[in-house]
Amino acid sequence: MNTSGTTTRPPPEGLKDYEAEGHTRDTTRAAAGKRLGEVCMLQLGHADGDGAFMAIARREGKRVLWSRMSGALREHYGVAFDARGIDHALDESIGWVLSITDKVVASERARAH
Known about the structure:
113 residues, mainly alpha
């Protein structure tokens, strides 16, 4: 644990790939695609509608990422990267994921009808 009370973990694979090589590796992209597919399936199966799913996914995603990544982000970007900066970065990252999954889910629903 670090001084902020969070567990220090290495940066995500995609970030490490990009910083080291200027792009993500095929295995990293494949793993990300699998995870996006899992989020799509969760959204498709959510009984309370897309709005409720998005709110829960955003809240819980930020909670999990905060606990796993805030220490690594702070270490990576320096102490100037405060809680507000971390929250904004996580919110933006989750927003990208939810934007992608929402498009995939809409496409799947359109194909089903």
